[in-house]
Amino acid sequence: MVSAWNSLHSAVLELVRSTPMKQRLIAAYRRHLTLIQPEHLPAEARSSFAQVMSSLAGVKPLRGEDAVTASVRKMSSQDADDCAVLIVEIFGQLPHALDNAPAQRPNGAVVQLRSIDSAPAEFDAPALTATN
């Protein structure tokens, strides 16, 4: 399973390609945003994510197209830009949310593999001296 951070990161990378904005939004939705479960997002990002998902798939499709194609087709260029900005803003909220989360420490014990008091003989090398 891909994490929400990875999916949003990939969606943002999709948005910075050189293709037209509406094509980028469709690709980001199909390839990455649909993989995200809202409960895996911080609470402060969930309503924005729901807004993005609704705007990208809220229009009833015509025959032969899907909801995302219909929704993006109906968007103005400004609406498409605003939707892309919202995706980037959601991604930007994730690191802040992770900073505020309690630190998780590994629960395994530290295992000493060799003595740190003396260097192993296998790494000893004779000193190099220059002679003329």
Helix share, percent: 40-55%
Number of domains: 1
SS summary, helix count:
5
Query: How are helices and strands ordered from N to C?
Result: HHHHH
Sheet-strand content, in percent, reads: under 5%
Write up what this structure looks like:
- There is one protein chain.
- With 132 residues, this protein is mainly alpha-helical.
- The chain has one domain (4-100).
- The protein is 53% helix and 0% strand.
- The protein has helices spanning 4-15, 21-31, 43-57, 67-74, 77-100.
- Helix 2 packs antiparallel against helix 4 (67-74) and helix 3 (43-57) runs antiparallel to helix 5.
- The longest helix is centred in the last third of the chain and has 24 residues, at 77-100.
- It is elongated and about 85 Å long.
Set down the secondary structure blueprint:
Layout: H1 4-15, H2 21-31, H3 43-57, H4 67-74, H5 77-100
Helix pairs in contact: 1-2, 1-5, 2-4, 3-5
Defining key terms:
0% strand; single chain; 132 residues; mainly alpha; 53% helix
Question: What is the structure about, briefly put?
Answer:
By secondary structure, the protein is mostly helical.
